[in-house]
User: Fold this.
Amino acid sequence: MKVLIVIAPEKFRDEELAGPVAALNAAGIGYDIASTRRGTCTGMLGAKATAISLDEVDPKAYDGLIIVGGSGAQTHLWDDDLLQPMVRFFHDKMKPVGAICLAPVVLARAGILKGKKATYFESPVSFREMRAGGAVLVNQPVVSDTRIITANGPAAAQAFAEGFIKMLTAVEW
Assistant:
């Protein structure tokens, strides 16, 4: 089992990467980190992560997708031409898709949140984007709907990671 974690090349939220990485490691689940460019990525609090480029990713090689938030998500991920089709691929194949903080906007823009319950880090622009994507907005730290899990920020990173892993390993799917 392997998960793809997508981060912005700069200003990803450190805890939102660290929480899922620690939980995946504890569960014995492999992962790759990808970004809009290959190399070292830097978090808002200074964490470093080495990423492959999204154009190197074969989505068929992964069992789930996590998109990390932070202010860099808005700048680098919301409009990425490779990420949105990837989100739709995972969703269409009924593979778990998770996004935290500002990253759920990627899911909204990819069209998979229409009529789905979701949460996110609220700002005027993220609120507008989530509504435009048809999300049913829920004011909770972590929200799951079908095979989609969203969270509202760094404080929810651990619960988000645990929920994602539960979804990923559920036998009823």
